[in-house]
């Protein structure tokens, strides 16, 4: 008789056997292989790294043209365990001045010891992500793609917000402009007339609630933050309005950076939905945008990354993003997955309308949990909270 033991359960299994604690620690560390990809390494450095990896029992995959330095740079994919990387760092540190090897050492150190994601809100409160946060969607718009998410009057807004908070939402995301495919833009003035009053009402009745505002207009962001909002959620990653970064810095507000190509009216064009490696391309863009923000004065505790499901991605691209979501985590910044009831969910499930995409949305939340994301943005708070908490309980077992 035999049992197949998952890699992440080896430490638990060893602890149940009559093995010396020191031996348990040594052997448990040999169970988990942790692939890591490092970009634009100079070919001489890649050749050195490959030889050092082979010498310690790890592996380094590089691209054609590396061994004879026909290519100046190559991406490398390292295959090893933590103890491999610790030995590799020790060896490479003695060559840090050669061919940019020092940067590879820094990347490996960051990979092994990632910063714990936290978010400091505009009012100074901290989201620590001891568990996944659920963001409830409140659309004060007449044309959001899912009719069930639309709220208009103050009483309806308050009732919907109360239900979401009762069901476990830790953040309420207020949107005043639909960004569904082919949606018409609204002016900042119209958006503000919808959003600012909603923020004021929510702040008055639920002062402990965390309020996010979905906008790419700096003027709307400033008015909302002045009214009591705590987070700005920008689908253009701060690129549509040059003043957006300044506004968020002024109010010390976290900024959600989302990946999108084109605009809501153009993002469904096939040429915008083509990627070399969807998850990698999206992650690279978001990290570049994060670097821009960091250079401007943001900290990682003021940035949240959103891969932008449905925005200039076809069905296959959206699925690839969900499958590769873990490539974006571990950067010291929280990751948000926002795919609630979107078109690709309906397409995968046989053409279901938005009203019938709850189960598909919950599958996305499950994928986010297993990828190590910190937040999901959903229309249906109670169902997703229950799913997430159950999965978290399962994952916490045997640790």
Describe this structure in words.
This protein is α/β, with parallel strands linked by helices and 399 residues long. 41% of the residues lie in helices and 14% in strands. The protein has 14 helices and 13 strands. The chain has helices spanning 10-15, 21-28, 43-56, 82-93, 101-112, 154-167, 188-205, 218-226, 244-251, 278-296, 315-323, 343-348, 358-371, 381-396; strands spanning 36-42, 59-61, 73-79, 119-120, 126-127, 133-139, 171-175, 210-214, 231-234, 255-258, 303-306, 336-337, 375-378. The strands form 3 sheets. The chain has an 8-stranded parallel beta sheet. Strands 1-3-2 form a 3-stranded antiparallel beta sheet, covered by helices on one side. A hairpin with a 5-residue loop joins β4 and β5. The model has no long low-confidence stretch (mean pLDDT 93).
Strand content: 5-15%
Number of strands: 13
Strands ordered across the widest β-sheet: 11-10-9-8-7-6-13-12
Q: Which series of helices and strands comes N to C?
A: HHEHEEHHEEEHEHEHEHEHEHEHHEH
pLDDT < 50 stretches: none
Helix content: 40-55%
The main β sheet shows up as:
8 strands, parallel
Report the span from N to C terminus. 25 Å
Cα-atom radius of gyration: 23 Å
* Shape by Cα distribution: globular
Query: Please, what is the average pLDDT?
Result: 93
Structural class based on helices, strands and sheet pairing: alpha/beta
Count of helix runs? 14
